[in-house]
Design goal:
By secondary structure, this protein is of the alpha/beta class. The chain folds into 2 domains: about 5-230, P-loop containing nucleotide triphosphate hydrolases (Rossmann fold, 3-Layer(aba) Sandwich), CATH 3.40.50; about 235-280. The chain is about 35% helix and about 30% strand. It has a 6-stranded mixed β-sheet with strand order 5-6-7-3-8-9, with helices on both faces. A 3-stranded antiparallel β-sheet has the order 2-1-4, with helices on one face. The radius of gyration is 23 Å and the shape is globular. The model has no long low-confidence stretch (mean pLDDT about 90).
Length: about 300
């Protein structure tokens, strides 16, 4: 891998016409972020925040009024870049009368691949637990099976950059486990992964970095750990009470921290450490966007 940034997005703006009166509604407002090579970056936002619109602009499906999008440090999108990208849309469209194998062969050829399809197809279908269904038509597949065959086409040609829009949508627990394992395998292979989800627990489990978008604006860009620590307002004090051996813990808010330290010291307690209390990503995300809940969306 000879690039530092798999994706650079600068100042994206996108406006749609909305409603009967065709009012202009700005859905992306100076959106800027970067995706580091070899990392897994989560793209988080509530419904309607601009996640899918951003991804469609990035992949050149729709066109922003303003902004710049670069891949692999300095390349604009084109056939060469596209051949190195694997993509799973939120609502994929399938040709009902193709079998799973025929569907994958179609995408193999789209990626410009030649020899080696049958082995690659067998390995990928085995990975997503669909090998026995390879000769069945897609119209007979359940929603979960379609999501898994969609994931199979995204990684079939071993892309350098994987873009996934809600990859675990509609999956049962077994299907979610399969997709998570595939993401972990791709991480080990060194693939750059950028995926959107509203399932924040999955983000915390799988991502090193995080981009949060709300009402068309990037509200946070950085590491997952720093986001949780930055949002933290509670601290855990570990101490040993007087004449006892077993340590105890208490959790206090930031505003009460110094008073609690003074109280423990006055009581001759031995303070072992003071650390930020673990904050779940759901709570941290809620804290971040709560200030914007009453802000009206921009209309022109």
């Amino acid at each position: 891998m000879n690039f530092m940034k798999a994706l650079i997005v600068r100042d994206l703006e996108k406006t749609f016409l909305d409603g009967f009166w065709r009012t202009k509604k700005k859905v992306l407002k100076k959106v800027s972020f970067q995706v580091a090579a070899g990392q897994t970056t989560g793209f988080v936002g509530v419904n309607g925040s601009g996640k899918t619109t951003s991804l469609k602009c990035i992949l050149n499906f729709i066109f922003p009024e303003q902004g710049e999008i670069l891949f692999f440090d300095n390349q604009t999108i084109g056939p060469k870049v596209k051949s190195q990208i694997g993509y799973l849309p939120e609502r994929p469209y399938y040709y009902d009368f193709l079998t799973a194998e025929e569907f994958l062969k179609f995408h193999w050829r789209l990626a410009g691949k030649g020899q080696g399809f049958h082995l690659a197809c067998r390995q990928i279908l085995e990975k997503v637990n669909l090998l026995q269904a390879r000769h069945k038509k897609l119209k007979s597949f359940s929603k979960g099976m379609l999501q898994r065959v969609g994931m199979a086409q995204a990684i079939l040609h071993q892309p350098q950059f994987l873009i996934l829009d809600e990859p675990m949508s509609g999956l049962d627990p077994d299907g979610r486990l399969i997709i998570k394992e595939i993401i972990r395998e791709e991480q080990k292979r060194g693939t750059t992964i950028f995926f959107s989800s509203h399932l924040l627990g999955d983000m915390e489990e799988l991502c090193q970095d995080l981009v949060i978008i709300h009402q068309g604006q990037v509200k946070y860009e950085g590491s997952m750990n720093q986001f949780i620590l930055k949002s933290n307002i509670d601290y855990r004090i570990t101490y040993v009470p007087t004449e006892k051996w077993d340590p105890l813990e208490i959790i206090v808010g930031k505003e009460k921290l110094q008073g609690e330290i003074d109280r423990l010291r006055q009581g001759q307690n031995q303070i072992l450490k003071i650390t930020p209390a673990q904050l779940e990503i759901e709570k941290a995300f809620s804290q971040l966007i709560s200030a914007d809940r009453s802000t009206p969306e921009t209309q022109i």
